Structure formats: structure tokens, C-alpha cells
């Protein structure tokens, strides 16, 4: 009796092995007979925006808009201690000059900018490195450069009636 059971076990194991092998082979041949693989369907990564201005806007919308909004009025602005700057008036507040290099440093945040206290403004250099999967600080600088290009594109005149903070007081005696 014992013997038969053992033989039975071996028999079933063999059967199973054949079945599995057969199934594997069947799958392989099916795959081979199937439609040609669609390698063309593999799309380029979504963030591969090559136009610097468009990429800068993309980044601004993802990271900055929440506080700075269109005119310093993003949805998160009221939760902050310090009012986020209206980034469309950077040039207007500096007498028409757009300080690209200074802005790069402010946004990066990893370098000290004289006279620019750190308030609620996050340090983007480090954030970008992580969330945009950038390896070197050079890459980070490049992305920040694109945001600065975008910022330059949205500069406008100070709206009539609003005084910019740096306006020198005009005394008349
Ligand atoms: C959490 C809210 C918040 C987010 C998000 C944010 N900022 Fe700011 N930002 C501020 C606040 C508040 C200030 C003003 C106070 C300060 O300088 O810290 C500021 C100031 C700045 C200034 C200085 C403007 C000046 O005239 O001195 C620049 C430039 C700037 N932000 C750019 C950006 C950019 C670019 C992004 C996106 C990558 C961004 N900010 C995202 C809150 C934010």
C-alpha cells in the first residue's frame, strides 16, 4: 500500500510538471504569434518641455502659484505671515530693472542674498533637486533660470493708483 501511494505521488508530480511546462510553452508560442509589440506607444516623459519659457511657466504653476498667484494673491497667501510678493511687479519696484541674477539666488535660496530676509519663502534649490529628480546643482540652476525667464515675461507696469513700496517720497519743502 505504501509503495503505491508513493508512486502515485511521483506520477502526479510528473503530471503537474508536464502541465506547467506545457502551459509555459503555450504562453511563449502565443506571445510569439501575437501582434507585433507596440514599442512606438512608449511616450516621452511628460515633463520634457524643451521651450525654457513654457517650462518656466509649468514650474511656476506647480510650485509658486499657490502663494504668489497672479498678483501676490495665491490661494495660500492669506495663511502666511508675510505677504507673498507680487512677482509681476519685480521690475516696476526696482525702477524698471529686472534683476535676473539676484532672483535666481533668491529662488534657489541656498545662497545668502544681502538685504533679503528669509520669511515664508521656501528654499527651492533643495526642493527642486528632490521633487524634479535633479542630480546636480547645475541642473537645479537651469530649472530656476527657466522660472526667471518666465517671471521676466510677466512683468508689468505698476497699476495706476498703487504705489510701489520703493517709491521715494517726494517732499515739497
Ligand atoms: C509658501 C508660499 C510661497 C511659495 C510656494 C513661493 N513663495 Fe516666493 N515668497 C513668499 C513670500 C511670503 C515672500 C515675501 C517674503 C520673503 O521674501 O520671504 C516671497 C518672496 C519671493 C521673491 C522675492 C521678491 C522680491 O521682490 O524680493 C521671489 C523672487 C519669489 N518669492 C519667487 C518665488 C518663486 C519663483 C516660487 C516658486 C518656485 C515661489 N516664490 C514660491 C512665499 C512663497
Features:
173 residues; mainly alpha; Cytochrome Bc1 Complex, Chain D, domain 2; 50% helix; binds heme C
What does this structure look like?
The chain is mainly α. The protein has a domain of 102 residues: Cytochrome c-like domain (Cytochrome Bc1 Complex, Chain D, domain 2, Orthogonal Bundle), CATH 1.10.760. It is 50% helix and 0% strand. It is built from seven helices and no strands. Heme C binds next to helix 3 and helix 5.
Parts with pLDDT < 50 across at least 5 consecutive residues: 22-45
Shape: elongated
Query: Strand percentage, roughly?
Result: under 5%
Largest sheet: none
Ligand names: heme C
Helices and strands, with pairings:
Elements: H1 2-33, H2 52-63, H3 65-68, H4 90-93, H5 100-108, H6 124-131, H7 137-153
Bound molecules: heme C.
Provide a brief overview of the structure.
By secondary structure, the chain is mainly alpha-helical. The chain has helices at 2-33, 52-63, 65-68, 90-93, 100-108, 124-131, 137-153. It is built from seven helices and no strands.
Amino acid at each position: 500500500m505504501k509503495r503505491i501511494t508513493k508512486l502515485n505521488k511521483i506520477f502526479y508530480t510528473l503530471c503537474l510538471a508536464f502541465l506547467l511546462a506545457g502551459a509555459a510553452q503555450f504562453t511563449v508560442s502565443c506571445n510569439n504569434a501575437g501582434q507585433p509589440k507596440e514599442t512606438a506607444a512608449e511616450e516621452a516623459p511628460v515633463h520634457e518641455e524643451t521651450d525654457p519659457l513654457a517650462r518656466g511657466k509649468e514650474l511656476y504653476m506647480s510650485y509658486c502659484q499657490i502663494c504668489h498667484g497672479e498678483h501676490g494673491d495665491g490661494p495660500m497667501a492669506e495663511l502666511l505671515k508675510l505677504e507673498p510678493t507680487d512677482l509681476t511687479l519685480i521690475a516696476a519696484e526696482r525702477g524698471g530693472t529686472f534683476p535676473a541674477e539676484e532672483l535666481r539666488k533668491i529662488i534657489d535660496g541656498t545662497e545668502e542674498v544681502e538685504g533679503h530676509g528669509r520669511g515664508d519663502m521656501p528654499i527651492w534649490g533643495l526642493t527642486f533637486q528632490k521633487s524634479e529628480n535633479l542630480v546636480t546643482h547645475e541642473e537645479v540652476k537651469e530649472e530656476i533660470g527657466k522660472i526667471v525667464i518666465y517671471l521676466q515675461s510677466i512683468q508689468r507696469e505698476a497699476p495706476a493708483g498703487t504705489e510701489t513700496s520703493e517709491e521715494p517720497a517726494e517732499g515739497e519743502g
